[in-house]
Write a structure and sequence with these properties.
Length: 68
């Protein structure tokens, strides 16, 4: 999936850190949602590429990860 978000759209996103991330380490995953997309990024490099998936794909990933 390839999406284009404007700088304004990107600045309006609210990024949430994984509850499994530690506060004392840089190994964090952050997630932001738009109506049609879930964006995932590395908190160490927030300006770098983001993974974009559909909400359904993200839900499936989280459900699978929770059972693994």
């Amino acid at each position: 999936m390839s999406i284009k978000l404007s700088a304004e759209d990107l600045s309006a996103l609210t990024w949430v850190k994984s509850s499994y991330s530690t506060n004392d380490g840089p190994e964090c995953v952050e997630v932001a949602r738009t109506p049609d997309t879930v964006l995932v990024r590395d908190s160490k490099r927030p300006e770098h590429a983001r993974l974009a998936v559909t909400p359904a794909a993200w839900s499936g990933f989280v459900a699978h990860a929770a059972t693994s």
